[in-house]
Give the backbone structure.
Amino acid sequence: MLTLEGTVEEIIYQNESNGYTVAILETEDDVVTIVGYIPIINIGETLRVQGEWTYHANYGQQFNVETYSTVVPATLNGIEKYLSSGLIPGIGPKTAKKIVEKFGRDSLDILQYNPDKLKEVDGIGPKKANKIAEAFQEQRELRDVMIFLQQYGISPSYGIRIYKKYGNETIAKIKENPYRLSEDVFGIGFKMADKIARNMGVDLRSPYRINAGIKFTLMESSSEGHTYIPREELINKATSILEVEKELVEEGLTSLALKQEIHIENMDDEVSVYYMPFYYAETNVTKKIIELSQGEVKELDIDVDQEIQNLEEENSIKFANNQKEAIKEAVKNGVLVITGGPGTGKTTTINSIIKLFEENDLTVSLAAPTGRAAKRMTEATGKEAKTIHRLLEYTYVDEEMGMAFAKDEGTPIEENVVIIDEVSMVDILLMNNLLKAILPGTRLILVGDVDQLPSVGPGNVLRDIIDSKVVKVVKLNEIFRQAQESMIVVNAHRVNKGEKPHLNVKDKDFFFMRRNNGKDIVNTIVELCNERLPNFYGYDPVKDIQVLAPMKKGDTGINSLNQQLQSVLNPKNPMKEEKETNQFTFRVGDKVMQIKNNYRAEWVIRENGKVVEEGEGVFNGDFGYVKDIDNEESEMIVVFDDNKEVTYNFSQLDELKLAYATTIHKSQGSEFPVVVMPINWGPPMLLTRNLLYTAITRAKELVVLVGMEKYLYMMIRNNRIIKRYSGLNKRLFKFFDVRKREM
Ligand SMILES: Nc1ncnc2c1ncn2[C@@H]1O[C@H](COP(=O)(O)OP(=O)(O)OP(=O)(O)O)[C@@H](O)[C@H]1O
């Protein structure tokens, strides 16, 4: 094998996920192309490579790298290049030059041992000096971690994530139990952890491995919405994932149950296995729902019929019978569910309920599961609605613990009435946290549309509560005249009942454009967003129009749509800064979405350049647009609803994605003036009636469907509600029965 040593002049290509690199190396007497798996190199670095010369038909002579090691750059030029390569946030080409001018060959030593001195460089204040020092230190540690991980075949992009989670304890933690990666690190599943562990020599039959595989199987099913999984199904799945004998998995189940990491339960001829947090949540939700619905609420000394009549007079309307019933039941019960589709008078009813309670000196608090839904509730009721998280006064503890809620059994929500909107989106864990903070005596009113898609997280909470028949449910089903003016409302109800929608009624708000293949569908959608809708209706393509698709992949999936829409709505432009990540090219002006809750992200609101408000937290599903990209500082600024500005370091860009198009699942709880949706073939599992129903009910003013009618009708006919394993319904029913029998 031959050895070469030189300075990395240029990185021509690097595959971020596997580290395959093509780079130019300047040796003492030559400039050569090197190729191979060299994930952790930076421009300006001195590299020692071992390998062989090869000849490539197109590219000529190349040095094929087998192994390599890096040496910190020694020449002034090398140091400057190294610092300006974008490696250290806060240092771009200009700052790098100044640092090297000031400290010469000692630059890197200063960064490492004496960063305080950086303040002597023109333009670097104490804050920036600190930030640079921290980043440099991190870079050092990261390098060690990367070299460690590299030997087990972990790509640099995952290496960074792992390091973010464990910091300087990375190596120790992974050596102890590599399987913890799959529980702790976003994006690393059991399979990758397993690969690492196997490379480290962990035995196929090791209990660590078996237990991790079982937990992985459980977590995977929870990501499909299940709170438990039948024992047999779990054993089969885990056995095939682990590729070991069934008996080992059975033993694993027993040992996990003994450690109380899982719960195994016999319920109605079925043995179910729960991951512990879901079991606790489900049993506690059951207990609290029963307690609240059977507990006494303070009686109001009023004549409800008279009150209802007064409300009718004040609003100059006559309530439908169901609306009256809802108002009466709200007064009587500890828990009430109000459900109904669009335009059935939910908001009108809630407003009347709020009024009635407040006039009788009861305090009322409003909340909804997402920021957008809370905002809409605020607008519809004229009274502040919070997110459920804020109602519970969440605080971020740390990476390990995640979040904590200040409101719980000990410090309950001190309100007489709590009304939650969009309950179909609430999963079992959030419902548990909410109910913990509500004591008997408080009236809880759950409002939602049970025909929407269920929550993204595990559980089937609203549907189960309704089906269990243990709490009072009022279903609003009359579509009021005003609402009937809207084809969106009328068609939503038709779709929900399995009927064909009215398409293309003149002067209405619901259109279908026939296109016979994926390519035409995409072209039409792009043209609608770029020309027709802005030109004829004055809609802003980024702010007003949302493309919603059932799928991520395929030619009419959101990945392809986002690319096409970006290239037309916000094309490449020398005046607009860009930042390329391994998934997207973000450009100033792009529409983006946060895809992960980040409780610590700091935001500011500015008016005339001055900060007028600041706070923390951006959440999964929040929409924003890219205001600025600073390649010198390695930062991108995104503006979310209410003009909240969040600054992302480039290393955090995996929290964002392009959002010209988004999946219908991600759109839950949001509303948009215009919804455009491709109607194309897809797996029948995915193309369901409630998916279509959810998509069209997201639109306030206009729906345009583009594609093939047969698939529209296929969706409407596909009333299969994907089965979710959830024990809440059964539990409520059973527990309730027992109580009744005791009485
Ligand atoms: N009893 C009633 N008589 C006449 N009109 C009513 C009555 N109740 C509600 N409406 C009207 O029907 C329309 C829909 O009502 P509302 O907004 O309360 O429904 P919603 O279920 O909240 O709808 P969405 O879910 O679409 O927001 C409104 O214009 C409202 O003023």
Remarks:
- The pocket of adenosine-5'-triphosphate is lined by residues 317-320, 323, 340, 342-348, 480, 482-483 (CB under 6 Å).
- The first helix runs from residue 76 to 83.
- Residues 499-717 form a domain with the Rossmann fold fold (CATH 3.40.50.300).
- The first strand starts at residue 2 and ends at 14.
